[in-house]
Amino acid sequence: MSARFAEESAEAIPLHLLAPDDIPDELPSLTAAQRAWVTHLGFSGKAGEAVSLADTEGAPAMVLVGLGTARDRARERFAAGAAIAGLPKGTYRIAATPGGAAGHEIALGYLLACYRFDRYRTQPGPEAALVAPDGCDANRLEQIAAAEFLTRDLINTPAEDMGPDALEAALRGLAGRYGGEVNSTEGAALIAANLPLIHTVGRAAARAPRLLDMTWGENGPALTLVGKGVCFDTGGLNLKPSASMGLMKKDMGGAATVLGLARMIMAANMPLRLRVLIPAVENAISGNAFRPGDILTARNGLTVEINNTDAEGRLVLADALALASETPPDLLVSMATLTGAARVAVGPDLAPFYTDDEALAAALATAAGAVADPVWRMPFHEPYETMIEPGIADLDNAPKGGFAGSITAALFLRRFVADTPRYAHFDIYGWQPSAAPARPKGGVGQGARCLFEALPKVLGL
């Protein structure tokens, strides 16, 4: 599905966006009947509040939409845009656009609130159509929304219909639309291609594991995106309890988010050379499943002791990152629904990221605020390196003790990044646990808009 702005119309109903402090100035401009109606309804300008007003003939005259206070807007991003999407059938235009990023956020919030996951059940979309606000790049916002919808659709689709083969089909469809090229290394060919960890994690599944490799663009700086594509995670022989397994269709959320970001980049025709690497597997159980206690050798020669088969995401990412580092890009980014420890640390709404590059970290922090895509920097804390060194092998995939799980996972991944000037790892959740404005319960992209906003500065585009 897609969401688009309406064409300009002389009959579009004006929207007046008001913060609580704006109401005393706005009310005198209304008719006596309109003022009485607004007072009767108790309109206070809180975020997402909306009141429709009629003219003397009873026809729609305007809608007042609450912006809330600055604190409200920080807590309830997209509330005003979602309120617009929920208005009665009609075409609307914003009479006075809040300046800068706020106007873009409201417009994007409207588009994102149009999302419906309708693959398995018809769901009517919003009836309100919005004319793109003055000063907004309508096409850019529509493409960002379309990319987010792609990410949400991929995550929301159950594993029966979103295995490694379906993830490959999604990537090929994206590449075909924008002129990218895709290579897939599948099954036993992974061993011959020296991608042993990807093969080992996925070999027990009925659908073959694979490494998906897309390239796009011929000029400009090189950007490589690596997304964890574990299409379902049973935990392997360290089987997850049912309560933990129920959401594991979302364990390919890193791949889904990377595909959404790639779509943004290609739709914008950014002047760069893009590479997307997705290790696509299912962590399943059968007679040939890998075992606790096994020692595996990764693509770059490092040995890994398996202390928990449920810590499989870092294994498939390790091979992909080692491959990416053999042709060092100007920026390397990995995205993964990697650890529960990240959720304990920052909750489901923040996307923690790791980088050693101060300029990159600063650019991401600035971009996150500009596009309402919250991220939080976490440390590559050097003293914890010993926690991922078991002694019997170079690395431990699941350090004992339970401390600093997201940090130790990030440190593990960094061991497979060599000779790359800039690297960032995002440990995302990829799921909205309860509905929020423009973010229904279900799959959600995290960090992609932030990265998209930051790339021109980071790569000097």
- Can you tell me the CATH architecture of the largest domain? 3-Layer(aba) Sandwich
CATH topology label of the largest domain: Aminopeptidase
CATH superfamily caption of the largest domain: Zn peptidases
What sort of overall outline do the alpha carbons produce when their principal axes are compared?
Answer: elongated
Protein name: Leucyl aminopeptidase family protein
Keywords: Aminopeptidase, Hydrolase, Manganese, Protease
Organism: Rhodophyticola porphyridii
Family: Belongs to the peptidase M17 family.
Please provide a written account of the structure:
- There is one protein chain.
- The chain is 34% helix and 20% strand.
- It is elongated.
- 49% of the residues are buried.
- The chain has 2 domains: 13-114, Leucine Aminopeptidase, subunit E, domain 1; 143-459, 3-Layer(aba) Sandwich (Aminopeptidase).
- Helix 6 packs antiparallel against helix 11 (253-267).
- It has helices at residues 23-26, 32-41, 70-75, 79-85, 101-112, 138-156, 164-178, 189-192, 196-202, 242-245, 253-267, 313-325, 340-346, 358-371, 405-414, 448-459, and strands at 13-18, 50-54, 60-66, 90-94, 128-130, 181-186, 210-216, 222-227, 229-233, 273-283, 295-297, 303-305, 331-336, 351-355, 375-378, 395-396, 423-427, 431-432, 442-443.
- The mean pLDDT is 95.
- A hairpin with a 5-residue loop joins strand 2 (50-54) and strand 3 (60-66).
- The chain has 461 residues and is of the alpha/beta class.
- One of its GO terms (cellular component) is cytoplasm.
- Belongs to the peptidase M17 family.
- It holds the Pfam family Peptidase_M17_N_1.
